[in-house]
Amino acid sequence: MKLSTVFHSLHYTKPIMTSTLKPHRVATATFAAALALSMTLAALPRIAHAQAAAAMATQSSSEQGVTVKATPRSAGLDNPRWEFSVVLDTHSSDLGDDLAATATLITADGREFKPVAWTGAAPGGHHREGVLEFSVPQPWPHAVELKLQREGEATARSFRWQF
Question: What residues pair up with 69 in beta bridges, in sequence order?
């Protein structure tokens, strides 16, 4: 069947239900509804991405003149390792933390993991920045807590994210 014949038969068929609306108004309303639905569906990935970005936002802790910021870089994604960006800043002391030794990743069900690597600035100075890497916990947790125990601080710095 030729396309023009199909179009002609669709355009000139009588509606199954009787209505006071003209066929072209029904077609316009149907098109508008389909357009609205497609725009809503197109926006869903952006909404999900925005929610995921908010869940993975940078967290900050300032105590005893030292600010620590932690940001998940690949946690929760399908990667062999989860990465957390860590930044330490101070104007009052030397940052001699061994983050590979003092960091712990704790899952929502209580499992604890030590980092497999620290890639970044060596101990010392007033500004340190780098990435802590952890093996991916199996099964995947719905939430994690990154704890950084700093020398001279009674409690560990704690950063939590939900997936």
Answer: 60, 87
13 and 29 co-located in one domain: yes
Residues 89 and 29 in one domain: no
Q: Are 120 and 103 in contact (CB under 8 A)?
A: no
pLDDT at 79: 74
AA identity, residue 16: I
**Percent share of the chain, pLDDT over 70:** 64
State the amino acid at position 131 in one-letter form: V
Between residues 45 and 70, which one has the greater pLDDT? 70
Number of domains in the chain: 2
pTM for this predicted structure: 0.66
